[in-house]
Amino acid sequence: MGFETFVAKRYLRSPRKDRSISVITKISIIGVAIGVMALIVALSVMNGFERDLKGALQRVNGDLTIYSLSPSGFKWESNNPLIQKVENSELIDAYAPFTQHQAFIMGKHKPMVTLIRGIDINLEPRVTPIEFFVRTESFESKRDNTKISKSDIEEKRKILNKLIPYRSEQDNRLITGIIVGSQLAKELGVDVGDWVTIMSMEARITPMGDMPRAKKFQVVGFFESGMPTADDYFTVIDIGVAQKLFKTGNKISGLTLGIEERNEADKYKSKLQKTIGLPYIITTWIDQNRNLFAMFKLEKFGLAVILTMIILIAAFNIISSLIMLVIEKNKDIAILKAMGAKDSSIRQIFMMQGIIIGLTGTIIGEILGLTICWALSNFEIIQIPAGVYVGNRIPVHVQIWQISLIALISFLICFVVTIFPSRKASKLDPVQGLRND
């Protein structure tokens, strides 16, 4: 700051404060702070939802999935060239077969349509943490979805073992287990230990005519991911049982692959596709949920635009404050210019005041926003009903680059709006300002 600017600044400080200007200045600071705070909290919560849902989708679908162009799938045998390529690939850490079929499921209430997934209980945990989604309690109960203990894993493994047909200790009855989606279980009115009937959509010929293939299963657990797309119609059975029920022999629907760098699934996909070739195609968990991710991006962008308007409104208050200050200090500015003060010195004074207002509001907003995010992350201020979402509390994920970008945008907006009133102050004619004296 030059000497002339320093003198001008000292001179423009009137011992008598104008209350209207002071109030508008405070309102401007509060407005900027609220806008920055709201933007940080809203985007951090959206980031949290997106992160948790991506994690859940990745765990449910697996990193990569191999399908065959043939509707009937492909054979699950060691001499299959596909299996040999998968085993020899250094990019793949683990793999597991699965079958997928649509069927009707009947419980105590009306029958529902379900997507039955047959899994290998020994290989599936290597590619998807299925134990994380298996539950024995009612879907309405609360659970910490951020971690799972070793004792819980052992308990869930026992449940998965019940998917393979076993003899009951009470009546020596052969029982086949099934894991039902939590919301689907509610619609069917069944709990752990109840029986459901699976009916294939393909009919079989009997002396009484065409009849659907049906089999009774005992519910041994619930499947809860927090995603309606899975919990509303998903059921899990043993892959061997599924092959017998749907008469597919040793054929499977596809392979779920596990890779080391899960976030680089697209790169692995392109490399593996060249190795495996047709008639097999590879999809990633991202490919299977692109519409959901596109929706998140659109919502975050719209939310950011709307909340930025709060900062713009506060910025217009800064303009009003500076214009009123120019009018109030009209005579003082004229005296300074008559004494030889340059236009740039006057302009710097008013721009500096606007920048201070914007900077103060931005800093306060950043502090408040981060404080609220910290409180939401560490305290159960707002709880989500169990069974509705992956977790039971509002998720928060603060990204440093977003915080920095918000601060930069807020500061730039406040800086730009000071240009007009500061130029207006510097262009005042000292003759007009002193004419009445």
Largest sheet: 6 strands, mixed, barrel
Strand order within the widest beta sheet: 3-4-11-8-10-9
What count of domains describes the coordinates? 2
What does the radius of gyration come to? 33 Å
Number-wise, the strands total 14
Counting helices, strands and paired strands, the structural category is alpha+beta
Distance between the ends: 31 Å
The topology string of helices and strands comes to HHEEHEEHEHEEEHEEHEHEEHEHHHHHH
Describe this protein with a few key phrases.
437 residues; alpha+beta; 2 domains; 6-stranded mixed β-barrel
Give a quick precis of the structure.
By secondary structure, the chain is α+β, with helices and mostly antiparallel strands. The protein has helices at 3-12, 19-61, 81-88, 124-127, 150-161, 182-188, 228-231, 239-245, 265-276, 290-328, 330-338, 343-378, 400-416, 419-426, 430-434; strands at residues 64-68, 74-75, 94-106, 112-119, 134-135, 166-167, 174-175, 177-181, 195-206, 209-223, 234-238, 251-252, 254-258, 280-284.
Structure report:
With 437 residues, the protein is an alpha+beta fold. The protein folds into two domains: 3-55 and 292-434, no CATH class; 63-284, no CATH class. The protein contains 15 helices and 14 strands. The chain has helices at 3-12, 19-61, 81-88, 124-127, 150-161, 182-188, 228-231, 239-245, 265-276, 290-328, 330-338, 343-378, 400-416, 419-426, 430-434; strands spanning 64-68, 74-75, 94-106, 112-119, 134-135, 166-167, 174-175, 177-181, 195-206, 209-223, 234-238, 251-252, 254-258, 280-284. Strands 3-4-11-8-10-9 form a six-stranded mixed barrel. Strands 2-12 form a two-stranded antiparallel sheet. Strands 6-7 form a two-stranded antiparallel sheet. Strand 3 (94-106) and strand 4 form a beta hairpin. It is elongated and about 105 Å long. The protein starts with a helix and ends with a helix. Residues 3-17 have low confidence and may be disordered.
